[in-house]
Design brief:
CATH class of the largest domain: Mainly Beta
Strand order of the largest sheet: 9-11-18-15-16-14
Order of helices and strands: EEEEEEEEEEEEEEEEEEE
CATH superfamily of the largest domain: Spermadhesin, CUB domain
Helix content: under 10%
Distance between the termini: 26 Å
Structural class: mainly beta
Strand content: 35-45%
Number of domains: 2
Number of strands: 19
Number of helices: 0
CATH topology of the largest domain: Jelly Rolls
Radius of gyration: 19 Å
Largest sheet: 6 strands, mixed
């Protein structure tokens, strides 16, 4: 385990500049690197982009472009999938770039190499999962949720490992904890929920075996005026969601939304809450997926 922090951590810094670190992957059994944000409050994005300050990760990764992170991300994490081991040492370059002076920030990143030769390694995430949760109940935030603005060009998969006796996953968002801009607000008022590919064709959260969701509330009902739990049935060992955003033609601060903070709960098979076993997702709602990535 390694820690990468700003020079004055846990105090703040205010200087511009670059802080770089190279991680050498010497074991051929390492297939992933997990990065956890600890007490991190970087400078906020502007109009959805990380401009004033950002963390980038490049190197021997299957992601085709650099990843950029900024903003307020307490307790967040992500996985970097590595290229297959060859004759050369694989590397990952971590760099924090600060473009402006006299604005306070701090960050601390915990970096862990994941040995995939050990089947019992609890750190290992399923292939293609940018974030991975393995508890029965928990909370999932979009990046920079606490600062009230989700970022452009997000494109990643969130996975939750199914516990042995679970039959489905319940996802809910309290009032004010879900806000994703609708592509076509004329089809439903902007202060309501939107469901499906027609309304949510640009920025959306896609819940596996459910549908695309955007708008002001998380609900299985299109045009709803309140939040309601969304249930995703179990079809395998992992529950999945995908968060996708684009670059808006016009950045609308009033209707942009913060992203999401989801409380999840795995439903037990003997709880009486399990839905009928059927695939309910609309195939037209599925995003085209090759490899999960966050694009700068």
């Amino acid at each position: 385990m390694l820690l990468l922090s700003n020079p004055s951590f846990p105090a703040v810094d205010v200087r511009a500049g670059r802080c770089s670190f190279r991680l050498n992957i010497t074991s051929r059994h390492v297939c992933q690197v997990r990065v956890d944000f600890k007490r991190t409050q970087m400078l906020l994005p502007r109009r959805g982009f990380c401009l004033d300050q950002y963390l980038s990760v490049t190197g021997s990764t299957t992601l085709p472009r650099s990843n950029r992170f900024c903003g307020n991300n307490p307790h967040q994490h992500f996985y970097v999938e590595l290229t297959e081991a060859g004759s050369q040492v694989r590397t990952l370059d971590f760099e924090v770039v600060t473009q402006v002076e006299d604005r306070p920030y701090n960050y601390s990143l915990m970096i862990q190499q994941v040995d995939c030769s050990r089947e019992s390694n609890q750190l290992k995430a399923p292939a293609g999962c940018f974030q991975y949760f393995d508890e029965e109940v928990g909370v999932i935030d979009s990046f920079n949720f606490d600062a009230g603005q989700y970022m452009n060009n997000q494109n990643y998969r969130i996975c939750i490992g199914a516990v042995n006796q679970s039959c489905a996953l319940s996802l809910s968002a309290a009032d004010g904890h879900f806000g994703i801009h609708q592509s076509h607000p004329r089809q439903v008022f902007i202060d309501r929920s939107a469901v499906g590919a027609q309304s949510c064709n640009r920025d959306y959260l896609w819940i596996h075996h459910q549908n695309r969701h955007c708008g002001a509330y998380l609900s299985p009902v299109h045009g709803d005026t309140q939040s309601r739990p969304v249930i995703s049935g179990r079809y395998g060992s992992v529950y999945q969601m995908e968060f996708r955003t684009a670059v808006p033609a016009r950045f609308d601060t009033m209707n942009r939304g913060a992203g999401f903070r989801l409380a999840y709960r795995q439903l037990a098979a003997d709880s009486g809450e399990c839905p009928a076993r059927k695939v309910v997702d609309d195939k037209s709602a599925r995003p085209r997926w090759n490899r999960m990535q966050i694009l700068a």
